[in-house]
Amino acid sequence: MSSTRAPLIGQPVERKEDYRFVTGTGQYTDDIVLPRQTYAAFVRSPHAHAHLRSLDVAAARGAPGVLALYTGKDLTSVGGVPCGWLIHSIDGTPMKEPKHPILAEDKVRHVGDPIALVVAESAREAKAAAALVEVEYDVLPAVVNPATAAASSTSVHDIAPDNICFTWAVGDKAATDTAFARAAHVTRLSLINNRLIPNALEPRAANAHYSPASDSYTLYVTSQNPHVERLLMAAFVLGIPEHKLRVVAPDVGGGFGSKIYLYAEEAALVWASRRVGRPIKWTAERSESFLTDAHGRDHVTTAELALDADGKFLALRVDTIANMGAYLSTFAPCIPTILHATLLAGQYTTPHIHCQVRAVFTNTAPVDAYRGAGRPEATYLLERIVERAARELAIDPPELRRRNFIRKFPYATPVGLTYDTGDYEATLDRVLELADVRGFPARKAESERRGLRRGIGYSCYIEACGIAPSSIAGALGARAGLFEAGEVRVHPTGKVTVFTGSHSHGQGHETTFAQVVADKFGLPLEDVEIEHGDTAKVLFGMGTYGSRSLAVGGSAIVKAADKILAKGCRIAAHLLEASDEDIEFRDGAFRVKGTDRSKSFAEIALAAYVPHHYPIEQLEPGLNENAFYDPPNFTFPAGSYVCEVEVDPDTGAARVDRFTACDDFGNVVNPMIVEGQVHGGLAQGIGQALLEGCRYDEESGQLLTGSLLDYTLPRADDLPNFLVQTVKGTPCKHNPLGVKGCGEAGAIGSPPAVINALLDALAPYGVRDLEMPATPLRIWQAIEAVRGKR
Amino acid sequence: MSLQIRLRVNNNAVTADVSPDTLLVTFLREHQHLTGTHVGCDTASCGACTVLVDGIAVKSCNILLAQVQGCEITTIEGITPADGSLHPMQAAFKACHGLQCGFCTPGMIMSAIDLVTHHEHSSEAEIRAGLQGNLCRCTGYHNIVRAVMQAAPIMGGAKS
Amino acid sequence: MPNLSYHRPSSIAEAARLARDDPDAKLLAGGQSIIPSLKLGLLAPSAFIDLGGLPELRGVRLEGRSLRIGAMTSHAEVANSPEVRKHVPALAHLAAGIGDRQVRNRGTIGGSLANSDPAADYPAAVLGLGAEVRTDRRAIPADSFFKGLFETDLGRDEILTAVEFPLPERAAYVKFPQPASRFALVGVFVSLTGKSVRVAVTGAGPCAFRVAALEQALAKRFAPESLNDITMPADALNADLHGSAEYRAHLIPVLTRRAVTQALA
Asked: Is residue A229 classed as helix, strand or coil in its secondary structure?
């Protein structure tokens, strides 16, 4: 702290960005209309799997308003959509990496696969013309179910005849098997981690423009990471010089992972904008979002947990099939491997863990990171199997967890991670108290009086955030660094603009980062402005995902701010005629230690830009610094959740009545924003558990949940009020802010708590298992199935 | 066929010649450049396009411009005071952190204003039910409900 | 769509003439179902005949022992109508549960009935109360109004003008919503008038239908226990992602029991 005013860090400061959002003056991609704007529509495959026999585009080309029409043949000189992560199979062979064409070449591989791009004077004309493109298909059988994809006689890609992309494993198999051999008890569980469709409320959109004047492109796009988009587009797809492509991600209406990736539509627009000679805009309709946004989860898993007679975990064995969809999306291969299998220790001292992951291609939309990305899959299976073991051994579920908690840090797991710090007992103790677990029997009795069954369920999660140390990521297959960049520009008047590579699309960076910098310099919050989302303004960035923004992006900013202060000290030393070592920055001013001589932050800024009396031989003028921060380790947020549900056994309807979350995020900069992040994560996690499930027709590969009338997004009355508390936790030991990340926790920790609660409620009926989403139909069927057996 | 439509938008008289299938939201966003009203879906499910027609909340993606001939339309821009201050509902959303990405926010605020105007003493459950027509993917609604509860008495005060 | 015309007639007669003269024209009420179909390209009429300019089609009136609701009365108006709330609170409750608030502000009873969506709520009330559908040329009893999936007894150019609901002694509507759309997965409307019991179900078949077995059991004694031993056959019931035919068959008596309990409360 450097100011006498109360620190802003730790305060629930209202968000700086909110004025524009509550007044409707935010600027989202679709709000941007460029001079001579044109509009695009895509012709998409109605089939999950088919050869393109012929394409007749004559009628569409001649339709009113049409300016251009392109098909896969026009784009043969262009690269495919690249994949940013390379996984090697157990046998050492690299994953199968089929080309993902921008527009389909000879084959379509999922419903919605783009075939042609139509550019017209209006969106309506483009759409009407797209409907006139006549495509003849030779329809092929579709591979839909990931569990049977490897056994299918149909291949999604020729280079992967058995539809297997890779078979990867982590952990010591022999040691794990040995531990199982001496187990007193083994708990087994098969489950599906249901496929989800992210549904950020703003549909994907892009507006691409080529300027002959500067021979350069500008792309406005709904992206979580504009620099990554630019890099991939320039280096792998279009071969445009990187410095001739500016990518702007303006206000973005939510991402949750789905806007990390480079998508075919964006590349097609940039490519076409030069040929058409006018800016081209495309905004997805929601039905297109359902078909083409990268989906999430979709694991078919079997797991076994070995325990000794005291309930100590001896070993965990996991076998997962992960659905990649029809093509490899940008980060797809790392999700079920690096971000899933390495989290299987959870909060526990399980000494031996082995996990095998088989990734398969299917004729469905690509699957990639969605809020939590791999960690919800790990947490769900682990917290389900732990709770099942507790039930089987008649041990109170929190007690079984407690017996196995990691208590000494740093802790090296058997699956490759080293947890720097944590206190799992603290969050568990706190959540049991907050959730009033003691009052549960009374609430249960009260529910019974109303004919309802009440259940309670627990979940203790851990996640690896702050992605990621580049060297580790590189060793694990990343084709990019995962550092972050920041720049702090002090203006002559002492006001500050901060440039960050961490795009904000709901996370509140414009406020949180400003709190950090304002405290650093002892400035009022309004003197600090945060800029993000424009490759022409921000020096570089790896973007926003994996709960990394404050831990990695914030740390880069802190590093740059430290450089500002270091330089400021040298300027002050000159002005105050003291030696550099005698200057300290304290309470918003540069001071000569032990004296009352000082220069304010603004005075030093002015001196840097008006260097009349300045150590010009030693120091450059100006006060602008940048920094790159590469984290030395992941961060490990953790917490404990308790869920209470009420089930109507006559209809199968279930509702979350109470949800209590207690999280350890290390230090917290803005508790209001952090709580909001947890709320949002909980909503998506409860959504996964009870409401949301992507379903394709098993035969045809048609998307059955292709609109908001069939895919259930949580609405206000589907959810309870949440009781969310952040403990004064264990600060991260290796980043300057001591922060861990909070964006995904809710979505990671909540699904098993909900399902565990449902299974508790339904235990009297003999129901032992429920698939997510546990819809009324499924709950009723589960009760009936057991009834039928009796 | 082109239709001549007269209506009022945020207290201004507006005349437009449009094709009959023009949606109110298209007119607001593309003709009037009032881009605070958003489009989040194509099935009238999300409510991001909610505006007031003669003081009553409707989904502007699900109504033809022709159907609001002669009506008074109020959008998020229309409730924002010119002096840089905020409508009580906007202020409550900001104070309660009732928004994150901001995309659903204008529709949510217009819907909440309608809810509070027509159901002054709503309970938490009634507010949740009353916001059924508006999807938010970020907040989990917790803080939105708080914001509506906070704004309601202030708006009531403003009315009397 | 480029050639779409729009008419806003100022009398029912004019509306009827416009409909008669253009076989591809579509009557437009609140538009809450038609406009989504238009946007999705499922519908391409030559013209819309907007009934929004006909005040005589709006409003709720008590006429002797029945409630007359104009076709263009919105769901919100029905839900909030003091007459409806007093005389047929079950109908007000039903209207208050249709779609969401914005939809209720625009959607109309006439539009809903003419559309006859298999999962709409109003058909259950019309059938469950034995209402009469009035058009510009005749009165259609509820029992012969619903003909099938999106199909009614209305002629192509016939204009639904009002619905007359007889006042029941007791009535209730219980809906089990489809989780995503909030349409009725199954909805059951129950009424008791004199000795006559009606049980109408929506969401479970191609259109709303009555269930004789439930009605007979309740006619003997209007109490939830009367239904304890009754099961519904699943054949011919709707089945989709959200509910199998068996599930719907199970829900019908469950919801009917609840409706009877509410009607007795």
From this structure: helix
Q: What is the pLDDT of residues A177-193, one digit of tens each?
A: 999 999 999 999 999 99
Quick check: C2 pLDDT over 60? Answer: no
Q: What is the rounded distance in angstroms from the CA atom of residue A758 to the CA atom of residue C96?
A: 30
∠ Cα A379 A385 A386 (to 5°): 85
- Per the CB < 8 A criterion, the answer to whether A285 and A309 are in contact is no
Is B141's CB within 8 Å of A254's CB?
no
Range of the domain at C188: 170-264
Per the CB < 8 A criterion, the answer to whether C49 and C27 are in contact is yes
Give B156's pLDDT tier (boundaries 50, 70, 90).
confident
pTM over 0.90: yes
DSSP state, residue C46: S
Domain A32-140+202-253+259-292 has CATH 3.90.1170.50: yes
Over residues A35-63, the pLDDT tens digits come to 999 999 999 999 999 999 999 999 999 99
Tell if the CB–CB gap between B21 and C1 is shorter than 8 Å: yes
Q: From chain C, pick out residues whose CB is under 8 angstroms from the CB of A708.
A: 180-181
CA-based nearest residue in chain A for residue B51: A24
Q: C255 contacts in A (CB within 8 Å)?
A: 651
Chain A residues with beta carbon closer than 8 angstroms to that of B129: 716-717
Taking the C-alpha atoms of residue A470 and residue A353, their distance in angstroms, rounded to an integer, is 25
**Helix extents (H) in chain C:** 12-21, 34-39, 75-80, 82-87, 89-96, 101-106, 109-115, 122-129, 212-220, 245-264
CATH architecture group of domain B88-159: Orthogonal Bundle (1.10)
pLDDT for the residue numbered A147: 97
> Has residue C236 been placed in a domain?
yes
Q: Does C244 touch chain A (CB under 8 A)?
A: yes
CATH assignment, B3-76: 3.10.20.30
Annotation: CATH topology of A299-468+633-789: Aldehyde Oxidoreductase; domain 4 (3.30.365)
8 Å CB contact of A683 and B93: no
All residues of chain B having their beta carbon less than 8 Å from the beta carbon of residue C181 are 45
CB contact under 8 A, B62 and C8: no
Q: Quick check: is C10 in a domain?
A: yes
**ipTM here:** 0.97
| CATH 1.10.150.120, chain B: domain bounds | 88-159
Q: Place A728 in a pLDDT band, splitting at 50, 70 and 90.
A: confident
Return the DSSP state at C54: -
CATH of domain A18-25+483-629: 3.30.365.10
For A709, the closest of B45, B97, B104 (CB atoms) is B45
pLDDT 10s digits, A67-101: 999 999 999 889 999 999 999 999 999 999 999 99
